[in-house]
Design brief:
Shape: flat
Order of helices and strands: EEEEHH
Number of helices: 2
Helix content: 10-25%
Number of strands: 4
Structural class: alpha+beta
Largest sheet: 4 strands, antiparallel
Strand order of the largest sheet: 1-2-3-4
Radius of gyration: 34 Å
Oligomer: single chain
Length: about 120
């Protein structure tokens, strides 16, 4: 079976790197009988023909592994966190916090334009 013959302007399916989807494209340039560049019919971007192959998903590999190694060397994990003692606050700090929360509620500012006073200038 022979490969289909394309002409300039024919529709062809290809992966668009901008849309990140397999979409309709138009043939933009050819070398002999092979398609070289295509134009996406959705976003109108021109890119090399990728033979309708979707690129593989990126793996979270070397960076995450290297970061874990660095963190393991810097600070070993604590198996049991130490219980924190509750520090009692001075009475003044507690009263000032109560006073702040018991103040009058905030006033709302309106955005109405004010009119200048009437009179002769």
């Amino acid at each position: 079976m022979t490969a289909p013959l394309f002409r300039l302007g024919d529709e062809i399916d290809d992966y668009c790197p901008r849309c990140k989807l397999l979409l309709n494209h138009a043939v933009a340039s050819m070398m002999g009988s092979t398609v070289v560049k295509v134009v996406c019919q959705t976003c109108h971007s021109e890119h090399p023909y990728k033979n309708a192959e979707v690129p593989p998903k990126k793996k979270s590999g070397p960076r995450a592994a290297l970061m874990d190694q660095v963190l393991a060397k810097v600070a070993p994990p604590n198996p049991e966190p130490e219980p924190e003692e509750k520090v009692s606050e001075p009475e003044e700090a507690a009263e000032s916090r109560k006073k702040k929360s018991s103040v009058t509620p905030a006033r709302y500012i309106t955005r109405h334009a004010t009119r200048p006073p009437r009179g002769k200038y």
